[in-house]
């Protein structure tokens, strides 16, 4: 009679599900590491070309401070990125600051208008892609039965 009322609160997850999730996490981690290494290499080259030490590209927030000094902007402007948590205003402020940064970066190295337009296009495209990904994740989290 006692067995009829026995409840188990543990989840029985099949080994295939665990292996699949592990493989997905491993693949995602490898992609993130590759992109981070490419970012560090690019910043290292930018810093050495500007006369700064390349190791400064390895420190996460300090590399942005050094980059802003190279392009002639105040490092205090990095605080505007904190406004990104404000829905519309933060997104616009971050977009404008990123565009200004890329224009100044192109000008700091004496590049032409075509190069600067390419940098700005990459920034805008990256921000739009990120915005769409976040919106899709929120949509799926709010109404998982529709997807």
Describe this structure in words.
This protein has 147 residues and is mainly alpha-helical. The chain contains four helices and no strands. α3 (87-108) packs antiparallel against α4 (113-142). The chain is elongated and about 75 Å long.
Give me some keywords for this one:
147 residues, mainly alpha, 4 helices, 67% helix, elongated
Relative helix content: 55-70%
Measured distance between first and last alpha carbons: 42 Å
Inertia-based shape: elongated
Largest sheet: none
Q: Care to count the β-strands?
A: 0
What's the order of the H and E elements? HHHH
Rg on CA atoms, Å: 22 Å
Our estimate of the beta-strand percent is: under 5%
Low-confidence stretches: none
Count of helical regions: 4
Structural class: mainly alpha
What is the residue-mean pLDDT, rounded to a whole number? 82
List strands and helices in order, with pairings.
Blueprint: H1 15-49, H2 60-71, H3 87-108, H4 113-142
Helix pairs in contact: 3-4
């Amino acid at each position: 009679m006692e067995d009829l009322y026995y409840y188990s609160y543990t989840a029985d997850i099949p080994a295939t599900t665990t292996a699949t999730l592990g493989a997905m996490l491993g693949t995602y981690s490898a992609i993130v590491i590759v992109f981070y290494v490419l970012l560090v290499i690019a910043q290292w080259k930018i810093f050495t070309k500007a006369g700064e030490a390349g190791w400064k590209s390895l420190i996460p927030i300090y590399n942005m401070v050094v980059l802003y000094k190279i392009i002639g902007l105040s490092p205090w402007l990095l605080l505007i990125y904190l406004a990104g948590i404000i829905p519309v205003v933060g997104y616009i402020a971050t977009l404008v600051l990123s565009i200004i940064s890329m224009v100044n970066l192109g000008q700091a190295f004496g590049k032409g208008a075509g190069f600067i337009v390419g940098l700005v296009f990459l920034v805008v495209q990256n921000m739009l892609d990120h915005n769409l990904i976040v919106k899709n994740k929120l949509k799926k989290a709010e109404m998982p039965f529709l997807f």
